[in-house]
């Protein structure tokens, strides 16, 4: 086999390997997904959009990973279900020690909730 042909084959194999590893990495990192709130085992967050959304809505998530949330979203309660959880706000993941399984989490000093950027399940 000529040297130029070997280089072409090698370059193709390297490219294919890199594409495969990138796609596998992205899939496993973003496995978290929204699900119907049909079980207390899921992560459940109570979200509010704007000042007039008094009742809010429950959003549930399953699987390990993290996901970003809309900027105009306020959260008043987290139920961890069978998950260990952190949220991202003020430029960092909080709380420093993640919230344990089967625990409610609220912000009693912030009756209107808190604004968060993302939620993570470990």
State which percent range the strand residues make up. 35-45%
**CATH-defined fold name of the largest domain:** Gamma-B Crystallin, domain 1
Radius of gyration: 21 Å
The level 1 CATH classification of the largest domain is: Mainly Beta
As residue ranges, the low-confidence spans are 8-28
Explained architecture:
The protein folds into two domains: 1-30; 33-121, Gamma-B Crystallin, domain 1. 22% of the residues lie in helices and 40% in strands. The chain is built from one helix and ten strands; from the N terminus they run αββββββββββ. The chain has one helix at 3-29, and strands at residues 33-35, 43-49, 57-62, 65-68, 73-79, 85-89, 92-99, 104-106, 114-115, 118-121. A hairpin with a 7-residue loop joins strand 2 (43-49) and strand 3. The protein is globular, with a radius of gyration of 21 Å. The model is unreliable at 8-28 (pLDDT under 50).
Summarize this structure as a short list of keywords or feature phrases:
1 helix; 22% helix; 122 residues; alpha+beta; globular
Write the layout of secondary structure elements.
Elements: H1 3-29, E1 33-35, E2 43-49, E3 57-62, E4 65-68, E5 73-79, E6 85-89, E7 92-99, E8 104-106, E9 114-115, E10 118-121
Antiparallel strand pairs: 1-3, 2-3, 2-5, 4-10, 5-8, 5-9, 6-7, 6-10
Short recap of the structure:
The protein has one helix at residues 3-29, and strands spanning 33-35, 43-49, 57-62, 65-68, 73-79, 85-89, 92-99, 104-106, 114-115, 118-121.
């Amino acid at each position: 086999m000529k040297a130029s042909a070997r280089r072409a084959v090698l370059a193709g194999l390297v490219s294919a390997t890199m594409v495969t590893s990138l796609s596998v990495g992205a899939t496993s990192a973003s496995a978290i997904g929204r699900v119907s709130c049909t079980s207390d085992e899921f992560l459940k967050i109570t979200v509010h959009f704007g000042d007039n959304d008094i009742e809010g809505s429950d959003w549930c998530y399953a699987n390990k990973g993290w996901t970003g949330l809309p900027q105009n979203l306020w959260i008043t309660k987290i139920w961890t279900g069978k998950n260990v959880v952190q949220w991202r706000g003020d430029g960092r993941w909080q709380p420093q020690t993640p919230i344990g399984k089967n625990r409610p989490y609220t912000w009693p000093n912030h009756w209107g909730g808190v604004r968060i950027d993302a939620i993570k399940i470990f």
